[in-house]
Amino acid sequence: MGLNEPRTARWSASAVAFVAAISTLAGCSAAPSHEAEAFADASPAADSLDQRQQQALADSLVQQIPCADRDQWLDDLAFWDTMRGYDCVDGTDSSFVRVYAHSSSVAQVLAEWDETFIEGRTARRGTHWFVIGPAEVIGDIKSPPDDPEQPYRRGAPLGLTADQEYLTMCTQYALDEALRTIRMQPGSAPDAAQYDALFPGVGATVRTTVDRKVRNAVTVEGDEERWPALLSKLGPRFKSTYTRAASRFADLPTAVHDG
Fold first, then answer.
1. Given the DSSP bridges, would you call strands 95-100 and 121-126 parallel, antiparallel or unpaired?
2. What is the mean pLDDT of residues 154-179?
3. How far is CA 108 from CA 111, 112, 224, 225, 238, in A?
4. Taking CA 38 as the corner, what is the angle to CA 43 and CA 31, rounded to the nearest 5 degrees?
5. pLDDT at residue 98 in the model
6. Residue in 20, 93, 33 with CA at minimum distance from that of residue 244
7. What's the pLDDT score for residue 235?
């Protein structure tokens, strides 16, 4: 199972509440732009890695664990930040490698997986990376010298800022629409009108991008849980539609800013 599946399964209820809280917000723009520009305002600090650095770090980590059957991730389709990583698929012994652009993202994403660390499964983390898997598999990983390991402490991290939460909801909505399009599900998604109002143009962009060629390439894989990884190459394109989202958070109610 990929790391995105439980997160996307839970996102709808949170999204509905978020939509209700900011129903007057104009939403994210569908105007194309460079991904780094689209997410610059959501970045909490200047400690970021570029995509080349993320990929190199992910490669150095995955080379240290068994990974014969692997899925490569070129972005996180359920979180605002950019990501590179791998799923090393081996049933209940699967391992996951993730590298995020921003250090704060590591604790925020890991916190959602605390409940999965049972029966010998654990996590190790660095400044920008984490690896999840059986303790006997990931225990011998040598942390990269330029991104040293940090103690992994379970518990609640700093919450997302309002703009990061909005971008995360927008990203998860795009993935949900992409999967609906691939499955050729008839009709509109639940609460479609609310989502279209909050994320204007995003659903249409996703449905146009996920054409027959994309559907055919994805559905060759019979395991639907692996589809998000195959779609992750579209992450930067999807995220480029959110260009002005963060700048519009000046319109959010104070209660949303304050959490």
1. unpaired
2. 86
3. 6, 7, 26, 22, 22
4. 160
5. 98
6. 33
7. 93
Question: What is the distance between the alpha carbons of residues 119 and 125, in angstroms, rounded to a whole number?
Answer: 19
- Encode pLDDT of 66-84 as tens digits: 999 999 999 999 999 999 9
Read off the pLDDT of each residue in 114-122 and give the average, rounded to a whole number.
87
Residue 170 identity: C
Confidence tier at 186 by pLDDT (50, 70, 90): low
CA distance 227 to 220: 10
Give the per-residue pLDDT at 164: 87
Residue 25 has pLDDT above 50, yes or no: no
* DSSP notation for the chain: --THHHHHHHHHHHHHHHHHHTTT----------HHHHTGGG--SS----HHHHHHHHHHHHTTS--SSEEEESS-TTSSS-EEEEEE-BTBT-EEEEEESSHHHHHHHHGGGGGG--TTEEEEEESSEEEEEEHHHHTTPPPPTTS-EE----S--PPPPHHHHHHHHHHHHHHHHHHHHHHT--SPPTTHHHHHHHSTTHHHHHHHHS-HHHHHHHHTSS-GGGHHHHHGGGHHHHHGGGTTTGGGGGGS-HHHHT-
- What is the rounded distance in angstroms from the CA atom of residue 84 to the CA atom of residue 52? 9
pTM: 0.81
* Single-letter amino acid, residue 166: Y
Indicate the pairing of strand 83-88 with strand 95-100: antiparallel
